[in-house]
Amino acid sequence: MPKIGMPDIRKPQLVKATMAVIERVGLHSASISLISKEAGVSTGIINHYFGGKHGLLEETMRAILRDLSGTVQAQLKHLPKDNHQSRINAIINANVEGFQAENKVAKTWLAFWSYSMHDVQLKRLQRVNEQRLLSHLKIELKALLPVEQANLVAHGIASLIDGIWLRGTLNPDGIDADKAREIINDYLDKQLTFYAQSSL
């Protein structure tokens, strides 16, 4: 976590620089020296406010997660509460369009996923993000399905989002948001149809 007192203008500047360096050279080669040069600050500022590379990576991921959460909330705010499929698509969109789909952000996400497997604090951030996604999906799905099925389908959609996002990130053409919506809605339609038939 950045120390209290750090100028707010420095935080986005350093987060942006961190993502740019990770995009260019990868996480392991993204040294404090390269990041500070990219940001136009001294290495001492990063070490003082973040305690080094790990703290800066944590703040970078927090910034990305805040953007994702804010985007989901903003999109849902403008949709009718009873239009559950549109609201599910808004959740999908927030994960596969705009800022989250930019190369520098996607590469930082990949580095974060890999790093979080061996780091307690980053793993906790990943867990918070996962639970937030599932919570949004379950709210919409519980209006369409019984609780047990809603929970199962929420995990299915979350897995599809992760898989589609990962494949798109590794694809030179990037993430295809239209294809993501098509695949996930096909899965959801089949789950809704299956439940409707099984409850007859």
From TrEMBL:
Q: Which residues form the HTH tetR-type domain?
A: 8-68
One GO biological-process annotation of the entry reads: negative regulation of DNA-templated transcription
| A GO term for molecular function | transcription cis-regulatory region binding
A Pfam family recorded for this sequence: TetR_N
List residues annotated as DNA-binding.
31-50
What is the documented function of this protein? Repressor involved in the biosynthesis of the osmoprotectant glycine betaine. It represses transcription of the choline transporter BetT and the genes of BetAB involved in the synthesis of glycine betaine. Repressor involved in choline regulation of the bet genes.
Q: What is this protein called?
A: HTH-type transcriptional regulator BetI
Q: Which organism is it from?
A: Vibrio rumoiensis 1S-45
